[in-house]
């Protein structure tokens, strides 16, 4: 039993890791299909880090200014 335990544990760990990778890929693919309107309604802290408008709103919020959406 002991000689077979290491490959079994390695295989189970690989399955857990690939499951997490596929779940994350699914979330990324789903979010790419969302229209920008509902995403713009989210607070800047919940938007993607590479969203330039979210970055501008965060900076304005920290400076105490109010940002009006141009769209």
TrEMBL record:
<feature type="region of interest" description="Disordered">
    <location>
        <begin position="30"/>
        <end position="71"/>
    </location>
</feature>
<keyword id="KW-0732">Signal</keyword>
<feature type="signal peptide">
    <location>
        <begin position="1"/>
        <end position="23"/>
    </location>
</feature>
<dbReference type="InterPro" id="IPR035904">
    <property type="entry name" value="Chorismate_synth_AroC_sf"/>
</dbReference>
<protein>
    <submittedName>
        <fullName>Uncharacterized protein</fullName>
    </submittedName>
</protein>
<feature type="compositionally biased region" description="Basic and acidic residues">
    <location>
        <begin position="47"/>
        <end position="71"/>
    </location>
</feature>
